[in-house]
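Revision sheet: structure tokens.
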Amino acid sequence: MLFCNIDLLDEHFTLRRGQYVGVRDGVIDYIGASMPAGDYGARYDGRHRLLLPGFYNVHSHAPMTLLRGYAENLPLQRWLSEKVFPFEDKLTDEAVYYGTQLAIAEMLACGTVSFTDMYFFLDGMSRAILESGIKCNLSRGLTVFDDKEYCQLAAYQDNLRLLREWHGQNDGRLRGDLCIHGEYTSTPKVVEAVAAQAREYDARMHIHLSETREEHEGCKQRHSMTPAAYMRAHGVFDVPTTAAHCVWLEGEDFDILKEHGVTVACCPASNLKLASGHANIPEMLRRGIRVALGTDGAASNNNLNLLQDIYLFAVVYKGVYQDATLVTPAQALHAATRAGALSQGRTDCGLVKVGCKADLCVLDTDTPQFTPMTDAAGNVVYAAQGCDIKLTMVDGEVLYRDGEFLRIDIEKIKAGAQRHTSGILAQL
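Predicted:
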């Protein structure tokens, strides 16, 4: 495809007007102010449009779209024990398939090209991911509350299938990661066993870390160390790790994450809604810790529109720390794009740059909220809405355009999701 006469945000998130962007074999191979030679196939009229890297949602529980609006106005532990866990006990692979497809549709419609997910029922999830064409780093949520060995857990067999059968499918769009749900939902020997498996398979890790004060302080009481120190001690950070939330980090925790190259998946909407608190993002950025963005699940957000989290990421810390200079638009967009791609190990993604994968989204700028476009990056961060996304492309393939999904039968998926949620609620 050739994008013609389109404005774009380059690798530094600087506006370049009236550009031509050529995509061939899934890769950006031309950017310039004049029409390139050669045939790029279909042409896209870029007038009143802004091209930028697609978004990376690096912490989600996609099937929880089925729980949207079900568990409201409760603190985290009651939210989990009274609402979420009983509902999840009734899930099936088919239900999870519909919930995942629904989540993917929502993400594509809001410009997301890839997500990092932690959940169960991998057959249903992988089917949904592969059919949709989106990119995903998928991990199987692991919890253990007794003295079982890792090899005795259902998660062990699921992880072997994930790493051996699904990892690298769809030309690498689907990747398998390993997961520890959290310190408080696991045991040291299982954590060490999963970390060892990650080293053996050269896999990445996805964990929850210091999401709530209760979790953070409880770990200190149980193990005389913070969750970050605990994960380091048991080998989790020996492989590339994405740690979700990190709201209650303290002292040496920041040094640990920086030293081990851990990516923090900041989830501002979920953290605020569940009253978990706010992460010290200014300190992380000051120390050079990689920070990316996640929505968390639709039961705690309640949407998967990463533009909402970009906005909150850019404004919350200004108010909390009473400093309007904190978190620039460029930093917010970097967190939502390039930082997320790197957290997934996708080093050739997340930028509008020749040689990078064509994972792109296009926004309509012929709208009141983009007029005048004095500062394009600022407009995206502070003013853009999910409905402004007009096209989402993954590896050069258009998956969403002008309200239509190219691979997803959205009416079928919406009906199936509603049917499964209604059926589960009838049992509770």
